[in-house]
Amino acid sequence: MYPFFRLGLELWKARRAPAMGLLETHVSHHRCWPQDLDLWMELNNGRTLTLFDLGRVPMGRRSGLHVALAANGWGAAVAGAVVRYRRRVRAFDAIEMKSRCIGWDGRFFYIEQAMWVHGECANHIVLRSAVTSKAGIVAPGQVLGAMGLALDSPPLPEWVQAWIAAEGARPWPPEL
């Protein structure tokens, strides 16, 4: 089941947190609960992706993105992700999550997140996120304008650009 209560708690905490710039890092703290575990008694890989929502959604609230989304009837969707799982996260482990927007192109925002457990990076994700309307994807420039921002994207890291290029070469629909 989706952790609606936990997300609501994070949004409640974010409403009292100071506003942050679009490119700043949002830091949040979580715990790996028994319902997050898999058969090997560690954080389930799918649940990891869900828990990253607990950092990303409040980050959007603190940066003012949620105001632009609500004012324009837009939504947000994950349009792709690349994940590294490097350390086990066990029941009751405390997690420090860091989330930040690292840039954008003509269609997507790119967001980097990491989970830190016992001082080590356990998981790292970079995803591309689309702002959507009934007409389709809303260009990041239009979203920034609705947020009252006039920013150029910082250069995306070379490895992120390589991932974007690889995604562009990937066949769709899959050849299964």
From TrEMBL:
**Any Pfam family hit:** 4HBT_2
Tell me the domain of life: Bacteria
What CDD domains does its record include? 4HBT
Q: Which PANTHER family match?
A: PROTEIN THEM6, PTHR12475
The molecule here is called Thioeseterase
Protein species of origin: Paragemmobacter aquarius
High-level lineage: Bacteria, Pseudomonadati, Pseudomonadota, Alphaproteobacteria, Rhodobacterales
